Every structure is written in structure tokens, then in C-alpha cells.
Amino acid sequence: MNSGDTAWLLVSTALVLLMTPALALFYGGMVRRKNVLSTIMHSMSAIPIISLLFCLVGYSLAFGASHGGLIGGFEYVGFRGLVGAQYQTVPALAFAAFQMMFAVITPALISGAFAERFKFSTYLVFISLWSLLVYVPVAHWVWASDGWLFKLKALDFAGGTVVHVTAGGAALVASLVVGKRLKYPQEHPIPHNLTMTLTGAGILWFGWFGFNAGSALTSSALAALAFVNTHLGAAAGALGWLAIEWRHRRKPTALGVASGLVAGLVAITPAAGFVAPWAAIVIGFAAGIICYGAVLAKHRFGYDDSLDAFGVHGVGGFAGAILTGIFADLRVNPEGGQDGLLRGGVRVFFVQVLASVVALAFSCIVTYILLKLLDRTMGLRVAATDEREGLDATQHGEDAYAG
Fold this sequence. Notes:
By secondary structure, the chain is an all-alpha fold. It has helices at 3-28, 36-63, 92-110, 120-143, 148-151, 160-178, 194-213, 221-249, 254-268, 277-301, 309-327, 346-377, 384-389, 391-396, and strands at 86-87, 90-91. Strands 1-2 form a two-stranded antiparallel ribbon.
């Protein structure tokens, strides 16, 4: 074992955990004040529930011995056999904890699609089942050494496909199945606290260094590459969104900068350890523009993705995965990388397209079935009267700004 690698992975694990409360702030500031606590609860409740679920069975199914490249086994149930064991140059338990934090934030991302109208009890059941039925299998396909997409050499350095494409696809389906908020789109609810949203975006940027650079699993030149690419992708994403919004709306907005930097972070995630820094800038800038267009498209097509979970995470993750297949450069990562389309890697490009399409389709189909079943058994939406009053009071009996 390497003490430096272990220390970096443990720090990265803590950084990734911090991203979920940051997401709570990011989403919480974008809703109306009567729904801020319920929105924050979507993210915060995912931490204990998914952590325990991942320990009990999720990790084993994601990284246990493969069954046909589709799903793992039960040998690591309850983290059995991990204490004192080694994974590459770090303790196996440290690697499991790191993966746990990825599993935690992924279903929380989906909540942005149905904010301000979803029953909390149903939400808890939904994220539990979705994590086991969607996230865990896709994680096995892409990251387990015997996963079928891993064997095809699909490139996903830190979760562009596993995290953002799956969560984004689920968000789109959820927004369609759950339906629009009352009086939408006749009324466009405005964010009640953009200061909160910007604070959350800043902490997300900080935590993302653990998300991406920690995925190197070593304190090495590869971690440094992912670290730098993460920062450049975020910066370029913010500028890309700012540029297109300024031209389109004639005014640059604070929400636009926050959304753009997150779009850049999402898009650089699959590519962070596979591309040169100049390519990270191109990917981030392109993601800012593409995701801005995707957010505008929801008004054109008439679906209510409340906090743009699909427009930023789904579209950004998909675009990032495809761009990884274009800009991947074997010279920056000789051990695990491949050359993308620009350097003659035609096969890599098509594998990236395949992996992205399969992950998106799988997530959409399973999410649709799951939501329909939950709608028939528990119900998805709160009552119209509860929605008008606000979910903070009706679902939790609290007021974020009492007095």
C-alpha cells in the first residue's frame, strides 16, 4: 500500500461527500422559498439512505465478481472482506468509501427535475430502488474489470456516463411522468435565493477536485492532470454559458455563470484523465453553449425539468462522453488512455457513443417502469392544495424563514 495514495483518496472521499450538501444549496436556492427545505432534504436524505444501502449490497453488486459482465455478486455484502484488504495501492475500504460517495450524489441529482411537487415518502423509496436497479448495474458495466463496457474499453474517468448520463436520463423521464408544476408554464417560478445557489456552485467546484482527481486513485501525475482539467473545464464552461447567454438575452446572469461552470464540470468528468488541458478548455466551453441550448429547449418542448437536471447533467454528461471519444490522447495517459477520433481512434469514438446511448436508454426505461409502479402504489405527486401551500409546511412541518 502507498500512504500518499491512501491519504489523497481519503481526502477525495471527503470532498465528494461535500458535493451533496453543496448540491442541496445549489438546488435549494433555485426554488421558491416555500419549498427550499423540501428541496434541500432531497439531497441530504440521500446521504444516509444510499450510504447504508451501498454498504449493505450496492458495492458488492457493482464491484463483486461479475455475472456475464452485467452485475456483480454478493461476496462484499456489508463490506465483508474489505477490512485489511487492498485495492491496487490503497485499502479496499478506502476505495469502497470513495465509490459510496458517488453512489450518494447520483440519485440526488435527479431530484432537480421534480422539485416542488414530489412526495417525500415516495422519493425515499424511489432513490433506493433506482440506485440498485440503475446506478449499480451501469457502474458495474463501466468500472468493474469484467464489466461488458469496461471490456470494450469505454472511457469514463470519473462518472460522465455512470453518474451524469444515468441521472440526467432519469431526470427527463421523471419530469415527463410526474408532470408540470401548477400553473407552469403560464407562471415561471423564479429562484428565491441566488446567493445560496452561487455558494452551492462554488462548493461543488471545490468538491469536484476530489470527484475527478480522486478517481486517479493515486497521488500522481495523473491526479494532477485530472485536477487541472477539472478546473479548466469549469472555467471554460462558465465563460461559454456567459457568452451565449449575453448574446441571446443581452444580459449575463449570476445563475448563468453557476449553471455554466457546473455544465463544464459535468462534461469534463469522463475526460479528466484522458485529454490534454487545451482539450479540457474546448470541452468545457462547448458544454456551456450546448447545455444553455438544452435548457432553453425545455420551454420549446413543454416539459418541466424544474432545476435543469437533464439540461445540465444529462446533456452535459452525454456531450462530455462523446467529446472524450474525440479528444482522448494516449500521450497524456499512456497506461489507461486511448487515442480519440482526432488522433485516429475511430473505434474509441464509436464505443463512447455506444456506452452513452446504452446507459441513457437503460436509465430511461427502468426509471419509467419504476415511477409508474410507484405512482400506482404510493403516488408520486403531493395534493394540489399541498403544492400551493408549499412542501416545507405540508411535507415537513417547517418553515425555512420562520420569523
